[in-house]
Amino acid sequence: MNAPLAIERDGSVAVIMLDHPPVNALAHRLRTALLTAIERLDSDPTVQAIVLHGAGRNFIAGADISEFDQPAQPPLLNELLFRLESCNKPVVAALHGAALGGGAETALACHYRAATSDLKIGFPEVTLGLLPGAGGTVRLPRLVGWKASLELMTGGKPIDVDRATAIGLVDRRIDGDVRAGAVAWARELVAGGALPRRLRDLGAPEATAELFAEWRAAMPATAWRLPAPGRIVDALEASATRPFDQALDRARELFEECRRSSESRALRYLFFAERGSSLDRDAALRVESAGVIGAGTMGAGIAISLATAGLAVTLVDSKPESLAAGLARVASTIEGSARKGRMTVADAAAAVARVRGSGDLKELSAVDLVIEAAFENLAVKRGLFAELGELCKPQAVLATNTSTLDVDAIAAASGRAADVAGMHFFSPANIMRLVEIVRGRESSRATLATLRAVTKRIGKIGVTVGNCYGFVGNCMLYAYGREKELMLLEGSTPEAIDRALEEFGMAMGPNAVGDLAGLDIGYQARRQWNERPDDPRFYRVSDRLAELGRYGQKSGRGFYRYDGSDRKRQPDPEVLELIRAEAKALGVAQRKIADSEIVERCIYALANEGARILEEGIAASPADIDVIWCNGYGFPRHRGGPMFHADTIGLAIVIEAMRRYEGEQGPQYWTPTPLLASLAEREGTFAGWQAGRADGV
Ligand code: 3HC
Description:
Blueprint: E1 5-10, E2 13-18, H1 28-42, E3 49-54, H2 77-85, E4 91-95, E5 98-100, H3 102-109, E6 112-115, E7 120-122, H4 136-144, H5 146-155, H6 161-166, E8 172-173, H7 178-191, H8 209-218, H9 228-241, H10 244-260, H11 262-275, E9 289-293, H12 297-308, E10 312-316, H13 320-339, H14 345-353, E11 355-358, E12 369-372, H15 378-391, E13 397-400, H16 407-414, E14 420-425, E15 434-439, H17 445-457, E16 461-466, H18 473-489, H19 494-504, H20 510-517, H21 519-527, H22 540-547, H23 573-586, H24 595-615, H25 622-632, H26 642-649, H27 651-665, H28 667-670, H29 674-681, H30 686-694
Parallel strand pairs: 2-3, 3-4, 4-6, 5-7, 6-8, 9-10, 9-12, 10-11, 12-13, 13-14, 15-16
Antiparallel strand pairs: 1-2, 14-15
Helix pairs in contact: 1-2, 2-3, 4-5, 5-9, 9-10, 11-25, 12-13, 13-14, 15-16, 18-24, 19-24, 21-22, 22-23, 24-27, 27-29
């Protein structure tokens, strides 16, 4: 194993080059080596200044998140940074790429900060349910004041070099090689007799008592689902009212409290789960150009994602008016991103220019990748793939964006099934980060690796799944939706169900989601589903609403009515009448249903279905399921996903509730899958089961 850092000399300036791939995270090895290096250089009389720099694309991406599940090993980051700041000669941070979390705190412990234009500096700890625990909450306000500190730490969004310079977080901007620039500056500092500038020697800026109270009051309700945002404000308030060392101790206590919380454990788990299995880089084919078939909302969204990431896109639609509308949508969405400051005007113009339209499929003969997003009909898609199989170049990868159809049946029509797989985007495709990559029976390793690589390149999270009706996400959605539909018949209301699940943390309740997606869409999909349960209660309410033309938001009526000028959802007495009538017709007795039952039935049904999908090999791991549900279906991230949540509750408790529902409702839906039952029996967890499989147990 290579040394995690190297010391290079440039005359009287010593450069500590951190070299701990992939991102210079401050793991125990690196902390130990850095402490030794600092002590050595501080006592070396031939060294007059020190530059701290990171090899590779980043300065330091933070503490090593994987270490937070184990007891902390000295030297703690806090102690290391205290020693760094104590250095008796000027220390310059040469910042580039990511300087995040503990990386930004390291920069604050240095005496001077130089940075290049690609810097992303910030405190994303809150996204992991944590707070900056290595002095950031005490040092940052001394440099940039309270408001900027509150914003940076409770918001968690990194800032660029312009903003960092404007608020005083970066002292000097360097064009070109940051190492060389920082060394030159260190020399200037020495020549000018500059002394170490320690933030801990500065007093904290004045703060009124109201400042923190007002900040807490203004935090969105969702922030209070996590302990971290409130604790960050507590830690900053402690910095305003206590001396440096005491404030730092308080921040450590609060950090530990957050680290131990189930919310932070869930978020840290997702951090690694979303990075998933390593990309199969060797097998991936080069993709620089792509064709997208179908210029509707989905096709345009896919084209936007590809073009924004630098790919040349040909958007194909046989209907000229649809093509024109799709191209207009692409241009207006990308230009809108520039107006909102998410990209520069020049980058937006370049992205729009990368998309061209065509009415002719033959124009895709030379592209590296085709993504078909045409009408959801097997005959249509098979026809298209038969043509693509003929006309596309031999190495091209062909993907279908179907959400319910059989990928193998589509692949077979192409005559080159090894090149075909599913690429299931979620709507709106330019916003939603999830893509299910559907492995067909004959999809080649190169095809799957290429789709994973493209997904990563366009900034999305790709999860490889097996081919079955609805793949992983929508297949599980049927279990979740089934329970809420049954509970409507049993006496609950759309708003009670949505409120209970939103309270649990779902981004939106299932009835509101149905109205947003269009109840006609689900209705059509269920008609085409051969294996739907033989149960007259199954999606009965949704089906009736769709049959009455109540399609949801687009028709102004669905589970709710949307007739106010703000189009906000309103309960609709007509729907309650309809539900009552359906229940009566089916002989379902109505009763009051508690919020706890609503949540348990919907969420435990998901966990049981997830276990079944794991048994069948449709999902490769519980973590994949959790990533899909947190990124495609609004499952609360602080609960980690349905499988992690079930583990957290305890599988024995989950099974106990399921047995109760089995007794009340019958076995049809509530019999635990063998995997869930056997794990619960031996007090196991899905995570433990997965780890055992990975170890070949
Ligand atoms: N700890 C451990 N591993 C990390 C890590 C970290 N802080 N940051 C990244 N990694 C790992 C990833 O798991 C991935 O591993 P893999 O190759 O085995 O899958 C690898 O590094 C590359 O990461 P990405 O795929 O995310 O690479 P990108 O180039 O897309 O992004 C990045 C780089 C912007 C640095 C991104 O990785 C990132 O945002 N990292 C996390 C930053 C963060 O949250 N820092 C705060 C940590 S908590 C902290 O510092 C607490 C302190 O206050 C005490």
